[in-house]
Amino acid sequence: MQNAFNFIQHNLLELHMPAFQWSDALEILVIAFLIYHILRWLRNTRAWTMMRGLTVVGALIVVAALFGMTTILWIVQNVMQIAVIALIIILQPELRSAIEELGQKDLLSSLFRIDTRRQTVERFSDKTVNEIVRASVQMAKACTGALIVIEQTTPLNEIERTGIAVDGLVTSQLLVNIFEKNTPLHDGAVIVRGDRVVSATCYLPLSETRMDKELGTRHRAGVGVSEVSDALTIIISEENGKISLAYRGALTRNVDADHLRARLVTLQKKEAAAAGRRSLLDRLLYTDRRGRDGE
Fold first, then answer.
1. CB of 221 within 8 A of CB of 179?
2. Are 132 and 234 in contact (CB under 8 A)?
3. Is residue 148's pLDDT more than 90?
4. 123: left (phi over 0), alpha (psi -120 to 50) or beta
5. Is 205 helix (H, G, I), strand (E, B) or coil?
6. Which of 13, 34, 128, 231 gets the most CB atoms within 10 Å of its CB?
7. Which CATH fold would you assign to the domain 126-294?
8. With contact defined as beta carbons under 8 Å apart, do 72 and 61 qualify?
9. Is 240 left (phi over 0), alpha (psi -120 to 50) or beta?
10. CA 168, CA 175: separation in Å to the nearest integer?
11. Coil, strand or helix: which one is 265?
């Protein structure tokens, strides 16, 4: 506690306000503009979840500094350089995408662009739930292999770009036709965002966890995307027609129509509740993403 009091006394109580000039105001606006666009870019990548974890680590480091935890500070000091290099390697695809996007943008038009359209946060409807359940049951009876990824708060834009754009309303006929054998779009996964199928034939990251030998690549891909996002993945086996669900890295096998419907309804209500609890910054970023997806 003495270290905390000394920190407050030497760093907070002796603060003084320097002379404020117009260049300082301009500098603040530039920094705020850059921070906003960096956060918006992070919000559209998987790095957003990693950034929240790094925020927790940073808070722990501050606590360690306040209370003089020398061992933790020594570890942080020796690991920091390696951690920065590792972070750059991990985020290499996202960083390359951000630099390419920066080169394609017209900065002046984006800086002064005003969008007066109202964007609303919508969860997927009850009709979408019924259509997904109906399609899953039909494909299970016919032993048609399928991968249906239902996006939640974690953006799947990178995975979406690996497939073919569909942008169609979710119906059981559309899903069944996509996964029909020997059709151009049957291989891969579909991404469902809200009430629409946005992309098909998408490639999913494979899980590296140990799984039963009887489970093939389709199940490993379904679990893999659930490990890097909060999406719910519906997996239909081509060998036995059984329906499985992957969520947060956990695989639930042999579910029936009632169980599938209950999970979708829970997901639907959870998404709506999360939209009501979002902070102002999250709502701004989420609205911006939904607006750009609708364009």
1. no
2. yes
3. yes
4. beta
5. coil
6. 231
7. YojJ-like (1 (3.40.1700)
8. yes
9. alpha
10. 10
11. helix
